[in-house]
Design goal:
Elements (H helix, E strand, L loop, with lengths): L1 H14 L15 E3 L4 E3 L10 E2 L7 E3 L4 E3 L9 E2 L7 E3 L4 E3 L11 E2 L7 E3 L4 E3 L2 H4 L4 E2 L7 E3 L4 E3 L7 E3 L10 E5 L6 E8 L4 E7 L10 E4 L4 E3 L2 E9 L5 E4 L3 E4 L27 E4 L2 E4 L14 E8 L5 E8 L16 E7 L3 E2 L3 H4 L3 E2 L6 E24 L14 E10 L9 E9 L2 E8 L3 E9 L5 E5 H14 L1 H4 L9 E2 L1 E24 L1
Parallel strand pairs: 18-26, 32-35
Antiparallel strand pairs: 1-2, 3-4, 4-5, 6-7, 7-8, 9-10, 10-11, 12-13, 13-14, 15-16, 16-19, 17-18, 17-21, 20-24, 21-22, 21-23, 24-25, 25-28, 26-27, 27-38, 28-29, 28-38, 30-37, 31-32, 31-36, 31-37, 31-38, 33-34, 34-35
């Protein structure tokens, strides 16, 4: 059987005739037989005509002779392929970059995460329009910390930081914490608080003391306090060289009342116990209280007078007290009457204004147990006014210290020391002593027994704008002199069982205007 098949094949081959050099392709693979050997079939397809072959569209084909590149798609025709929108496509031959100009996605569109300032323009990552998104700074968590996001960067949210006086819980404490946005480049600030009359306190401090820097909120609680009705405050910023940078707008806040009943400024409604009166605008600092005391303004015939007090805490920590007033002309009021006594108080004034505890100050105290109090002072003054500059103390029957606005006024004696004298007015009607030496200085001694037999005043023979007083020496001298001269001048004795309540200092005004700057006032208990 096998032999027969071979014979038949050979017979078939022998009966097939080939033209010499004619190569016949029997299966279309490009190879054939020329009758004696394998041979390349002459391609019937024109040279260079490349036909796409499987797999289709891969860029390769057959030209009848060999594999070839199909040049049917222009390289410039780059078609987007999945994933769409990533900027890459296929040009029929190879991967290609889509033309961002011709692409319909050439506009930069925000992509996730939204709001980060980045998007896709159809060809590549792109920045969103900064001018649009930067204008709106949106507060982010934690809300209220002053920081937000503008779509591109972290940003300061200006509207979340306001100038506020943060009032302590309870509402009666007189030392609110003030808050304001920091000023870029500021090295120090000055906090200024004023009332409707112009009474003012201020305190200067570094940015570090206010717990703020270029990009934070400042917080500060001043060591100087003010009591009045409605107040306003502002801040000033200074650079490292001390140059003024800017001043904030005024912000109003309500008075806080202290436990010691300091601020009773509505003088139409004071005086009835148990509320002690003398309701004068009050400033507290260190061991002192400053009162804008206009107790006898009713003696004026006109109401356009002015009087203000201020305390400025300087950068070096010192306090500067400024008293300014204008009580008009001599004939604009009762020229014989004192109009006011704007003053600094150390101790307890008439039970209404208290600058500290007895443990802190040594007052109130009975004369028999009284310590020595050394007073160091310095001042400058400009203007033209009929006034004195006087220290004084009241003595009470006991140390409860009740003044004229209590059921019982327990004041018994008044002692004054005038370190500067008016040009016309005197403290009394009778000069009882001339040129007595007390505390190494010469003084004249005045009394007014017909009007007040429990009053004595010392006037300086030689006035000084600075000096030292040892207060108990004047008290002891008065005790001895009043006891010895009761019958001579018809005056009362200063009793050593009575209680000294405070030491006060300021100008008693008659008329005219002046500006008094007290740059040193120290009272030392010895």
């Amino acid at each position: 059987m096998q032999l027969r098949y071979i014979a038949l094949l050979l017979t078939a081959v022998s009966n097939f005739s080939f033209a010499q050099g004619s190569c016949v392709d029997s299966d279309g693979d490009g190879w054939g037989w020329d009758g004696s050997a394998s041979c390349r079939v002459e391609a019937s397809i024109g040279a260079g005509e490349c036909v796409d072959s499987i797999p289709l569209n891969d860029g390769w084909g057959w030209n009848g002779v060999a594999s070839c590149r199909i040049d049917t798609v222009s390289e410039s025709n780059c078609i987007d392929t999945p994933p769409l929108g990533n900027g890459w496509g296929w040009d029929g031959q190879q991967s290609c970059r889509l033309d961002p100009v011709e692409s319909p996605s050439s506009v930069c569109t925000d992509t996730a995460p939204l709001g980060d300032g980045w998007g896709w323009d159809g060809a590549q990552s792109c920045r969103l329009d900064r001018e649009v998104v930067e204008r709106t700074c949106i507060d982010t968590t934690p809300v209220g910390d002053g920081w937000g996001w503008d779509g591109e960067n972290s940003c300061r949210v200006a509207t979340t930081i306001e100038n506020t006086a943060r009032l302590p819980s309870g509402g009666h404490v007189s030392d609110p914490e003030f808050r304001w946005p920091a000023v870029s480049g500021a090295s120090s600030y000055r906090l200024i608080i004023e009332d409707h009359r112009g009474d003012r306190i201020s305190q200067q401090f570094t940015a570090g003391e206010a717990a703020c820097d270029d990009v934070a909120t400042c917080y500060f609680r001043p060591s100087v306090q003010i009591h009045d009705s409605i107040l306003k405050w502002r801040t000033q910023a200074f650079d490292a060289g001390g140059n003024w940078m800017e001043t904030s707008e005024d912000v109003s806040f309500n008075t806080l009342r202290s436990l010691s009943a300091q601020p009773y400024t509505d003088r139409d409604n004071i005086g009835a116990p148990p509320n002690p009166g003398n309701g004068f605008p009050t400033i507290e600092f260190d061991q002192f209280v400053v009162l804008n005391n206009d107790w006898n303004a009713r003696a004026m015939y006109r109401d356009d007078w002015q009087q203000t007090v201020s305390v400025d805490r300087l950068a070096n920590g010192n306090a500067e007290i400024v008293i300014e007033y204008d009580w008009l002309g001599q004939s604009d009021g009762d020229e014989f009457a004192v109009k006011s006594y704007p003053q600094v108080v150390y101790g307890n004034k008439l039970g209404a204004h208290v600058s500290g505890t007895k443990a802190e100050l040594g007052l109130p105290e009975t004369i028999s147990n009284l310590d020595e109090f050394r007073i160091d002072y310095s001042f400058t003054e400009t203007g033209n006014a009929e006034r004195n500059l006087a220290f004084e103390s009241f003595f009470h029957t006991d140390c409860e210290i009740n003044g004229p606005n209590f059921d019982v006024d327990d004041r018994e004696y008044e002692m004054m020391v005038w370190i500067a004298n008016p040009s016309i007015r005197t403290p009394g009607t009778t000069k009882a002593e001339t040129g007595v030496l007390i505390d190494n200085q010469l003084w004249d001694v005045w009394i007014k027994p017909a009007q007040n037999d429990k009053y004595i005043a010392f006037t300086a023979v030689n006035e000084n704008t600075s000096g030292t007083l040892n207060w108990k020496r004047f008290v002891d001298w008065t005790v001895n002199w009043s006891r010895a001269n009761q019958s001579v001048y018809n005056v009362r004795e200063l009793n050593t069982n009575w209680c000294m309540s405070a030491i006060e200092f300021g100008p008693e005004t008659f008329w005219g205007s002046s500006r008094l700057v007290i740059d040193r006032l120290e009272i030392t208990r010895q």
